[in-house]
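Quiz preparation item.
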């Protein structure tokens, strides 16, 4: 199970990968992309004009469903609510904000020229 870390990543630790077109991600919704063996949920929180990315796997049962989750504001935190268990995870750092344990890995996101890019650890092969 992933637990949010306090380690600061640097640009030297990461590589930016184009993962989808911006118009492939629904407004105030998510889409799943595959990077190497990982499934990553890309979220377009249009009402906040922000983009986020997390692992697609909910840590409670390992279901690949977070991209299908509902975006919500939980105590001021942009969050995704798992459609299976209703656990909410902060999109900024992946921690569970609904009182449960565990968390999900998050990824930096950049959108430009209609392309969504995420930063992944260098050991991840495209």
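Solution:
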């Amino acid at each position: 199970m992933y637990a949010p870390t306090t380690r600061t990543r640097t640009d030297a630790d990461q590589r930016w990968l184009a993962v989808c077109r911006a118009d492939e991600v629904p407004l105030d919704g998510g889409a799943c992309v595959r990077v190497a063996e990982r499934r990553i949920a890309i979220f377009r929180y249009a009402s906040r004009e922000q983009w986020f990315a997390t692992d697609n796997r909910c840590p409670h049962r390992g279901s690949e469903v977070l991209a299908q989750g509902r975006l919500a504001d939980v105590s001021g935190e942009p969050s995704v609510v798992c459609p299976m268990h209703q656990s909410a995870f902060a999109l900024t750092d992946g921690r569970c904000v609904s009182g449960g344990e565990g968390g999900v890995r998050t990824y930096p996101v950049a959108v430009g020229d209609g392309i969504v890019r995420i930063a992944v650890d260098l050991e991840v092969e495209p």
